[in-house]
Amino acid sequence: MRKNSIKNTRINSEVQRELSNIIRAGIKDPRIAPMTCVTGVEVAPDLKTAKAFISVLGDEEKKEETMKGLKNAEGFIRHELAAALNLRNTPEIRFILDNSTEYGMKISRLIDEVNHND
To answer: For 6-117, which CATH class?
Structure first.
């Protein structure tokens, strides 16, 4: 695995911030859950592609619908991202569902149950 440069780390955080703003305020698709969060972004060093890790609070159906809505709005999101950021290339975004928050809450709940039983 390649180590991220300072420039790449800065670009990742800028793209993450702008994606969050676009998803929160720019997209009017009712399929996208109101509790949708961009937990991380990995932009390739050549700025051609980006992986956006998305966390959705809700059941499996809500997650599926949100991912469909984001997939449908990819072109609009990329256009808005190009307008907000001054990059040589605007990356093609691939949305990936991130379940780490829910996994952490589940582990925390299990630890609390074990401590409560002792």
So the answer is: alpha beta
Q: Which two tokens stand for residue 115?
A: 């401590």
Task: For 2-30, write each residue's pLDDT tens digit.
Answer: 567 888 899 999 999 999 999 998 888 89
Q: Cα separation of 40 and 52, whole Å?
A: 6
pLDDT of residue 65: 93
Q: Distance of alpha carbon 2 from its chain centroid, rounded?
A: 21
Alpha helices by DSSP H, listed for the chain, are: 6-21, 60-72, 74-84, 100-117
Q: What is the pTM of this model?
A: 0.81
Contact 97, 63 (CB under 8 A): yes
- Which run of H or E residues covers position 97? strand 92-97
Please give the DSSP secondary-structure letter assigned to residue 34: T
- Tell me the domain boundaries of the chain: 6-117
Contact 73, 81 (CB under 8 A): no
Long-range residue pairs from 62-67, CB within 8 A, at least 24 positions apart, any chain? 62/33, 63/33, 63/97, 65/31, 65/32, 65/33, 66/31, 66/32, 66/33, 66/36, 67/95, 67/97
